[in-house]
Structures are given as C-alpha cells and as structure tokens.
Amino acid sequence: MIKKFLKRVFRKSVKTKAVGNAQVIPFELHGVSSDHISYGALKVTEGLQAAGYQAYVVGGAVRDLLLDRTPKDFDIATDATPEEVRRLFRRSRIIGRRFQLVHVMFGEEVVEVSTFRRMIEAEDAQTDEHGRLLRDNEFGDQEQDAARRDFTANALFYDPATQEIYDYHGGYADTRNHLLRIIGDPLVRYREDPVRMLRAVRLSAKLGIKLDAATAAPIAEMKSLLDNVPQARLLDEVLKMLLSGHSVECIQHLRQMNLHHGLLPLLDVILEQPMGEKFIMLALRNTDERISQDKTVSPAFLFAALLWHEVLAAWNLRVQRGERPVGAMHEAMDDVLARQKKQLAIPHRQDAVMKEIWLMQQRFEQRAGQRPFRLLEQPRFRAGFDFLLLRCASGEVDDQLGLWWDEFQDASAERRAEMLQPEGAGDKKRRWRKPRKKPDASMADGSAVPAGEPST
Ligand code: ATP
Ligand code: MG
C-alpha cells in the first residue's frame, strides 16, 4: 500500500524530456524493465548499438508490455540497412522483396528487424484510384518511422540499454488510458490502407482497450474500401483475428461495426441461423481456449467450422431433391467452397482437410461392422472427432453419438465388440453406387459412405 503510494508520488515527480519531436519517457515513469525483453531482441539491439546504429524494440511488444501482457514476438527498428543488419548477425537472412526485412535467428526465436521507413509524400506516393498506398518502402528516420505506423500505441520505441521509451504521437498516454487511436487523419489513414480498420477492431478486441471515438467513427462509411484490398491480405487479417485467442470478441466487434459483410460474407447468413451461430461461437470459444493453453489450432478446422452450416444447408437441399447423400455431400462442399472463394481466398491447400473433416461427419453415424474401425485409422480422426463434439455441444446432433465415439476410441476389444451396432440397423439395404463424379483423395479408400448406406 505504502509502496504503491510512494511509487505514485515518485512517478509524479519524474518528468519526461523532449528530444527533438519525441517525448522520452524514463523507466521510473513507465516501469518496463529490460528483463522483459527476449534474449534475441536484446542481442539484436546490443549488436546493432555496439556497431554504432540505433536500435529499438518497437510496435506490438512495447504496447503489450505497457499493458502488462506477454508480447507474441519482438520487432526491432533500426537505422541500419537490411544488408548492414545481415552482415552483423551470422544466423540471419533478408526476407521480402518489396520491403526488405531481416530475420535474425536465436535458437527457436526469430527476431524481425526492419529499417526505419517513411511515408512517401502525397505527390510522390503511388496510390490506386481509392487512395490506397501501393508503395511505401522508402527508408527514413525514427520520427518518420513513427508517423507511418498505424496506432499511437504501436509507434513507441523502447531502448533496452537505457530503458527509455521514445514517443512521437502520445502513444504512451493513450496506452495508459487504454485507448487505441490512429495516428493522423483517420480518413486518410484508412484510405491508404483499409486493413487498418480491421486491425483497429482486432487490436482493441484482443487487448481489451477502447477504440478512440474519432478512430472508430469513419469506419462505418469507409468499410467498402475493404473490397479493394487483395484477397490474400484480407485472409491474412481474418486469420489473425480468428487465431488471436480473442476471436469471439473480434467477431462480436466486427458485427457491431457491421464490418463482417465483405469479409466472411457467408458469416451473415450463418450467424442468422440460430444453430449456426451457436456452433460457430462454440468453435471460436474452443479455439480461443486452445490458444490460451498453448495448443495448436488448424486454420482448416476453423474454416470447416465456419462453413459447416452452409454445407449442411446445401446438402439438405440436394438430398431433398432426391440426390444420394454422399454425392450430395461432395456437391455441397464444392458449392460452398466455390462461393466462399469468390470473397475470401481460402487457400486450396486447406480444402482437402476441410473436406475430410466434413466427410467424416457422415461416417460417425455408422457404428456397425468394420466401418468404425476404419474411421479410427483416419489420420485426421482427432480433428473429425473434435468437430463432432462441437456439433453435439451446439445441439445439432445427439450427445450420445459423441459419447459413443469418446468411449469407443479407448475401449478394449471386448467392449468395442459389445458397442458395435447390429449390421444394417436402420439401414436400407441398398447397393453402394459410385458417385458419378470422380471421388477426391479423401474418398480414395472408398469407405466414405453416408449414414444408412452400406458399403457393399
Ligand atoms: P500483434 O500483437 O498482433 O503482432 P502488432 O501491432 O505487433 O500486433 P504486426 O502486424 O506484428 O502487429 O505489426 C507490427 C507493427 O507494424 C505494428 O505495431 C505497427 O506499428 C506496424 N503496422 C502493422 N501493420 C500496419 C499497417 N497496416 N499500417 C501501419 N502500420 C502497421
Ligand atoms: Mg507483432
């Protein structure tokens, strides 16, 4: 108590000093010790400074430390060129073509080093017809580097040697006040790079801090600018949201700001189906939990979850029209993936896994003969089973099915034999016909049969 009080009084008496246009905040005021800087980041700043260059920890790491959070990684900004950085560190390589960065490796840790950049003056800037910056890769100084960053909280430079923070845009006060504020005129900054609108939502959700009113206000009217952003970048940002460990908050904020339309267009439809919304929210919550426990999450699993109710709806429609269940499932999957791809470039390499997860869902229904054993041998059984559990939890399928598979997986041979359902129970004895379309890889073993469709 007394210590806290003294600390506060003491802090009040400590002043920041101005160096050029920066406010320099001493350790006594901000309290972030260099003990919190990773081994690799310390080595890089020390190495660069010893060679006569400037070097600071910058961006998300400084912000996170001020908010008492553990940074995901440490980025370094320096006045050394990428080539100069590379020459200083044996285990390093230059990456990127348009704007070069250097990755310096220390065991598992990769420290990203970028050379100070500047925003290109309006008359020289290359923008598209909507004002989006196409080129921003000129080297600059520290002050210019601060100005080209997105939010004031992301533009703080921390020097581990002196434990001082350099602040050009009031980011220290904003962070302390739990405010996320864009640097400069929000209209201009969103036009330059519409993805900043999504970053605003993601960072405020992830950090649990408020978006400054002027930063939030123009988003509603400017969101259509997201249509001009290359697909791959949008996908990157959506993935960052989904894998941020705070996906539930991110989606909620996106919906509040009506920003989800251009991103996951099918999300609107899905979220309006009561079952779909429950399922997706469960999947997201589950992902957030896995991340907080340092478990891996697969983007394919997430996308499979996001699109599941679309697949189900498309499948139902086809089955009602008289199509055979397996064929209908293949068509439904292709329909949904094709539709989604127009808006969100889910990479093709995810398709195979998503389809495997979806196809397994039909196979979970079959609990007679050899089929459950074959399903257990699927390399992605675990993902398929986790998916099934989500379906149970959302009320889409009976809990009993999940419980059955939960027990069956680890049961003894005798118990498994007891658990198997009688062959043909509930099945119509029909010959399994090959779907007209060439089956894809996930069907290659020919064992993917729909509920009630015996495979012989
Ligand atoms: P995270 O914790 O998610 O990594 P971050 O702020 O570190 O958050 P990065 O994508 O790693 O996000 O970016 C590093 C830094 O680069 C940011 O802190 C910001 O200063 C700057 N930056 C990133 N994206 C933009 C952008 N679109 N416009 C301007 N500056 C950006
Ligand atoms: Mg980062």
Description:
- The protein has helices at residues 2-13, 27-30, 39-50, 60-66, 82-88, 142-147, 171-176, 186-192, 195-207, 213-216, 219-222, 231-242, 247-256, 265-272, 274-292, 299-320, 325-343, 348-363, 371-376, 381-393, 399-410, 413-419; strands spanning 17-19, 22-25, 55-58, 75-78, 92-95, 101-106, 109-115, 117-118, 138-139, 156-159, 164-167, 179-180, 210-211.
- Helix 9 crosses helix 13 and helix 16 packs across helix 18 (348-363).
- The relative contact order is 0.06.
- It folds into 2 domains: 18-185, Beta Polymerase, domain 2; 269-425, Orthogonal Bundle (cca-adding enzyme, domain 2), CATH 1.10.3090.10.
- Strand 6 and strand 7 (109-115) form a beta hairpin.
- It is of the alpha+beta class and 456 residues long.
- A 9-stranded mixed beta sheet has the order 1-2-11-10-3-4-7-6-5. It has a two-stranded antiparallel ribbon with strand order 8-9. A two-stranded parallel sheet has the order 12-13.
- The longest helix has 22 residues, at 299-320.
- It is elongated.
- The chain is built from 22 helices and 13 strands.
- Adenosine-5'-triphosphate binds next to helix 9.
Q: What class would the helix/strand composition place it in?
A: alpha+beta
The CATH architecture classification of the largest domain is: 2-Layer Sandwich
How much helical structure, as a percent, in the residues?
Answer: 40-55%
Q: Nearest-angstrom radius of gyration?
A: 27 Å
Q: What is the CATH superfamily classification of the largest domain?
A: Beta Polymerase, domain 2
